[in-house]
Amino acid sequence: MAGARTKPQRRQWMRGGSASMRGVLLGLVLERPGHGGDLANRMLMRLGDTWRVDTNDAYRLLEQLEREGLICSRVEPCKGSGRRPLIVYHPTAKTSQALSLWMETLLPREPVRFGLHAKLAVARAEDAPRLMVALRDYEQKCLALAKMVTPNGGAQPSWPALFMDCTREAVYTQLRAEIDWAATARQRIAEHSRRQPAPPLTPSR
Amino acid sequence: MSPLLRIGEVSKAYPDGGGFLSVFERASLDVREATHVGVYGKRRSGKSTLLRIAAGVERPDSGSVIFDGIDLATVSPRDLARMLRSRLAYIALGDWRPNPGESVAQHLALALGGHGLTVCQAERRALRELDAVGVSAADAQSPAGSLSMVDRTRVMFARALAHDPRLIVIDDPVLTPSVSERDTLYALLRGLSRERRVALLVASEDFAALQGFDVFVSISARELCSSEGNATIVPFPALSQLGSARDARSS
Fold first, then answer.
1. Are residues A120 and A60 in the same domain?
2. How many other C-beta atoms lie within 10 A of the C-beta of residue B62?
3. Does residue A156 form part of some domain?
4. Which residues of chain A make contact with B227, given a CB cutoff of 8 A?
5. Partner-chain contact A203 B183, CB within 8 Å
6. Which of A95, A129, B18, B166 could be bridged to B239 by S-S, CB 3.0 to 4.6 A?
7. Residues B173-191: pLDDT tens digits?
8. A147 and B42: CB-CB below 8 Å?
């Protein structure tokens, strides 16, 4: 019963928009302890550009995880130089279990293309040109990102190579869906605009 | 440095009932030397039209197509046919028309006939190119008319490569293959093109198939969108009208 009462608390760190990043940080700490900058860089490398990781966020998220006892920090001397000591994050006895729990928990889908959704929700007919530009820009960004995260596909030589490629494939597939959505939305707006009678080009006196 | 292929502000419309159906308007696209450009779009989005225009097989209503410094609008049909057997290759699966009873090797050797090669030389060259695309010497003797869609693409690719082109334009290389067949075929297209420094312009409605291309271009709503941002995108007339009307009203 005690376990059942504490369950919501255990899962507190999995709530909110940054839950996935907290989960990734747990995995990285478990993989190899590191200081904030190191972990932020590793997270950036691991997740890729599409996540738009703000390295400053990593410090805040690490502090949250430490407060929950999922990781711990120690001040350690900086190796190989006389620079100031660093705060290095290490796993605790709870880290591995928390990571496993995160792996098997279906997190609520984070908002996608939130800004565009919001704009579409309140758009007026005269906003169509602006929406078309916004959608086109979005489509262009997705195409550029897709080019950057192209997976290799096929058999991979190692486990890290395989999971990295699967991650890339996930992002690539999502970007394809975004491109399809943006293209379809543009097509629909274009067709709708064509069906509308052209407004008078000169103001009535 | 000017691109190998420059499609400049081309527009194309087809008769549709009493009016015209516009496929795209003032669409622009550059293909640089030895780069791979993948055009992604849904059915009837205008991919095939764009590729036919790029290869000079179809003329745009307006705009220009410059390949290797030559404006394709100024090229005679005869010279264009010659060009399509040399520097520029166009592959569309619908164009697969081998002569009855012809073997795969004979089909390819015949296509090489215009290069001043003897029959023996053409056959040797054909077998070499077929080997490069994964068609064995034994399979090369099988009837050309009985090939699967994937093998047809391989042979058509071998036929294109045999002419030492600088650009190969391919319209939807594989329509209904398995994922592994698709990946193998695209890896072959990309690998051999990189090896021989040939530029590729490939259209597909399967975005996953275009993995590994240097530039992605999507086509929809009569516009081209490029991952490099070099494809010109213009607002379509209805929106310009809306903008003009709004401006006029506010003035």
1. no
2. 13
3. yes
4. 140, 143-144, 146-147
5. no
6. A129
7. 776 668 788 888 899 999 9
8. no
For residues A198 and B241, is the Cβ–Cβ distance under 8 A?
yes
Global pTM reads 0.72
In a domain, A3, yes or no: no
* Min distance B212 CA to chain A CA atoms (Å): 6
Chosen domain end from A103, A127, A160: A103
Which chain A residues contact residue B221 at CB under 8 A? 132, 183, 186-187, 189-190
Helix axis angle for B237-250 and A159-195, nearest 10°, is 60
Where in the sequence is the domain holding A164, given as residue range(s)? 115-195
Reduced to 3 states, what is the DSSP secondary structure of residue A88? strand
d(CA B144, CA B104): 4
Contact B207 A201 (CB under 8 A): no
Is the predicted ipTM greater than 0.85, yes or no? no
Q: Which of B224, B170, B227 is nearest to B12 (CA)?
A: B224
Q: Are residues A87 and A28 in the same domain?
A: yes
Residue A47 domain-assigned? yes
For chain B, the residues whose C-beta falls within 8 A of a C-beta of chain A are 40-42, 45, 183, 207-208, 211-218, 220-223, 225-229, 233, 235-236, 238-246, 248-249, 251
> Do A89 and A65 belong to one domain?
yes
Q: Which two tokens stand for residue B227?
A: 């991952």
Q: Are residues A99 and A120 in the same domain?
A: no
| pLDDT computed for residue B248 by the predictor | 39
Residue B51 tokens, joined: 């590729």
Question: Does residue A99 share a domain with residue A24?
Answer: yes
* Residue A120 within any structural domain of the chain: yes
The segments of chain B whose pLDDT lies below 50 read 230-251
Q: Are residues A49 and A76 in the same domain?
A: yes
